[in-house]
Amino acid sequence: MSMPPLDQDGYLCNLDDWSCTVAEQLAAREDLQLSEAHWEILNLLRAFYAQFQLSPANRALVRYVAQQLGPDKGNSLYLNRLFKGTPAKLAAKLAGLPKPSNCL
């Protein structure tokens, strides 16, 4: 499967182009292999986007994960282990969502 069009930052141009296969391809471009823990966060992010129509920044992501999955997973250290750098940006990219607007 070929990669759908991406913007200059590597995010999908069209959210409808996302699939599990595309997520795996995007992860490979980031030198990342998606585990069950990654998928749990990606699916949660997609549900957040479906409800609120925005990609959460880091603090909002941490709070939302804590609400939905508990404090063991809803903390910066856990999310940083899964998604290096800025977890909200990388997780949004892999989930096929727009770049969080207040992430540099």
Q: Descriptors for this entry?
A:
5 helices; 104 residues
SSE topology:
Layout lengths: L19 H10 L6 H17 L5 H12 L6 H7 L4 H8 L10
Helix pairs in contact: 2-3
Can you describe this structure?
The protein has 104 residues and is mainly α. The chain is 52% helix and 0% strand. The relative contact order is 0.18. The model has no long low-confidence stretch (mean pLDDT 94). One of its GO terms (molecular function) is transferase activity. It holds the Pfam family DsrC. It is found in: Cytoplasm. It is an enzyme of class 2 (transferase).
CATH architecture: Orthogonal Bundle
CATH class wording: Mainly Alpha
- Based on the structure, what is the oligomeric state of the protein chains? single chain
Distance between the first and last residues' Cα: 31 Å
* Helix-strand pattern: HHHHH
In total, the number of domains comes to: 1
CA gyration radius, whole angstroms: 13 Å
Strand content: under 5%
Give a count of the beta strands, DSSP E runs of length 2 or more: 0
Low-confidence stretches: none
CATH superfamily: DsrC protein, C-terminal domain
What is the mean predicted local confidence, pLDDT? 94
CATH topology: Arc Repressor Mutant, subunit A
What is the global morphology? Answer: globular
Give the helix proportion (percent range): 40-55%
Separate helix tally: 5
Tell me about the biggest sheet?
none
